[in-house]
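quick one: flavin mononucleotide bound model?
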Amino acid sequence: MTGTDDRIVVTDYIDPVTLLQRTSHAVAFAPGTLPPMALRRIAEAGRLSPSLYNTQPVRFVVIRDRSAYEKLRTGCNTSRDTFVKARKLFATMNRRLNNPTFVAGLERQIKGDVLPVHGYAIVPLHDDRLTESVEAASCALMAMQLEATSLGLASAFCSWTRGLSFQKEMVAMLGVPEGYKPFTSLIVGLPTHPLVTSEKQRRAFDDAVSWI
Ligand SMILES: Cc1cc2nc3c(=O)[nH]c(=O)nc-3n(C[C@H](O)[C@H](O)[C@H](O)COP(=O)(O)O)c2cc1C
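yep, here:
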C-alpha cells in the first residue's frame, strides 16, 4: 500500500517476518537527523498497539533534543552502575539475576556507555497501577521496532531506562505522570550500513514451535 496523509508518508508494506530478518539491532548509529516524521510514525505504532480492555496504559516520551539524549545516556549509566552494585542483594529475592547467561550479558555492558551515541530515544511509560501494563508496553516496543525497521532505520532495546524510576531528575525530565514508570526503551538511529536480510542465530523452527 502506498499513500499519504497530511503528516505521514505511508511506505510500501513489508511483512513482519521480512522485517525481523533484517539486521536492526544496532549498537552504533551514524550521525545525522532522521527522515522527516520518522519518530512520529514510530511513536504512532506504539500508540496504536493493543492493551488489555483497551486500557491504553502506556505513554511515550520521544527524545530528539541532543542535550536531553545526553542526559538520558548519563541516567542509563547511573541505572546500570546502581544495578550492578546491588545485583547480589536483588538476586536473593530474584534468582534469575544469578543466571549465568544473564550475568555474562551484564558483564559485557558493565563499563562504558550503555546507550549508543547519535541515537534518538522513545521511552514508554507504563501505568503501574494497571494489570498487563508491562505486556502492553512490550507490545508497543515491538510494534515500534518493526516500524523503525520498515523505515530503514536501525534500532536497539535498552532495559536500563527502567532504572530511571529511581532518579528524580530523570523522572522530572521525562515528565513521568503519577503512578507511571519508565519501561525498556527503543533507541533509534541512522544505520551505519544498509539494513540487509540476514540469517540470525535463532532457535531452529522445529525446536521453537511444536504442533499438536
Ligand atoms: C526487552 C529487551 C530489552 C533489552 N535490553 C537490552 C539492554 O538494555 N542492553 C543491551 O545491550 N541489549 C538489550 N537487549 C538485547 C538487544 O536489543 C538485542 O535483542 C540483542 O542484541 C540481539 O540482537 P539480534 O536480534 O540482532 O540478534 C534487549 C532485548 C530485549 C528484547
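The domain at 3-75+114-195 is CATH 3.40.109.10 (NADH Oxidase).
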